[in-house]
Design goal:
The complex is a heterodimer of chains A (111) and B (111). Chain A contains no helices and 11 strands. Chain A is mainly beta and 111 residues long. Helices cover 0% and strands 59% of the residues of chain A. In chain A, the strands form 2 sheets. In chain A, strands 2, 4, 5, 9, 10 and 11 form a 6-stranded mixed beta sheet that branches. A 5-stranded antiparallel beta sheet of chain A has the order 1-3-8-7-6, with no helix packed on it. Chain B is mainly beta and 111 residues long. In chain B, the strands form 2 sheets. In chain B, strands 2, 4, 5, 6, 9, 10 and 11 form a 7-stranded mixed beta sheet that branches. A 4-stranded antiparallel beta sheet of chain B has the order 1-3-8-7, with no helix packed on it. In chain B, a hairpin with a 2-residue loop joins strand 5 and strand 6. The chains are: A mainly beta (111), B mainly beta (111).
Chain lengths: 111, 111
């Protein structure tokens, strides 16, 4: 069983600020890591994924993966009120069709 | 645009009744899942089907049973619901265990 923990539990930032979310996982053999966004009353939607150590940038999103420290972070540049949602970190295991989720970070971006 | 369709969106029932949730995906994916999401947004995998074969069956109560007629459909039946079954049930699909695509969820309230 993969253990995925996210921090902080909730985050409030002003519009235009950088939002930083953290996730730790329990097994360095984990295959890929995803970040999902979930708005109220909707299903989670994949935002960005990373497999290799280092960083990956897509638009306003940057994700950093450090397998040695079992840590991945998501940074949202120029945060907008529409970014307000729950962000879920998900980790998959090699040769295993299971994807494990963290318990989420509630992001609120205030205008 | 939604490509994983769940019905019903919302269901209220009494303890001891039977409930069924339906899920269909139009993405041509080979794997479908059922996740349970509690009030704290924690997602726990319940079942996973790959090409109609059950490949993951987490320890869920026996009153839960998945049913798949083909790789595009995965239903969930709950016999004799209990109060702790109140949650949002999320259906998802993926191609070879990669990015998950979720439906909007089926909220169950057991009174």
């Amino acid at each position: 069983q993969e253990k995925v923990q996210q921090s902080p539990e909730s985050l409030i930032v002003p519009e235009g600020a950088m939002s930083s979310l953290n996730c730790t996982f329990s097994n360095s053999a984990s295959q890929s890591i995803w970040w999902y966004q979930q708005h109220p009353g909707k299903g989670p939607e994949a935002l960005i994924s990373i497999f290799s150590n280092g960083n990956k940038k897509e638009g306003r999103l940057t994700v950093y993966l450090n397998r040695a420290s079992l840590h991945v972070s998501l940074h949202i540049r120029d945060s907008q009120p529409s970014d307000s949602a729950v962000y879920l970190c998900a980790v998959s295991r090699y040769s295993n069709n299971r994807i494990f989720f963290g318990d989420g970070t509630q992001l609120v971006v205030k205008p | 645009e939604t490509a994983v369709f769940q019905t019903p969106n919302y269901h209220v029932t009494q303890v001891g009744n039977e409930v069924s949730f339906n899920c269909k995906q139009t993405l041509g994916h080979d794997t479908m899942y059922w996740y349970k999401q509690d009030s704290k947004k924690l997602l726990k995998i319940m079942f996973s089907y790959n090409n109609k074969q059950l490949i993951v069956n987490e320890t869920v109560p026996r009153r839960f049973s998945p049913q798949s007629s083909d790789k595009a459909h995965l239903n969930l039946r709950i016999k004799s619901v209990e109060p702790e079954d109140s949650a949002v049930y999320l259906c998802a699909s993926s191609l070879q265990g990669n990015t998950l695509y979720f439906g909007e969820g089926s909220r169950l309230i057991v009174v």
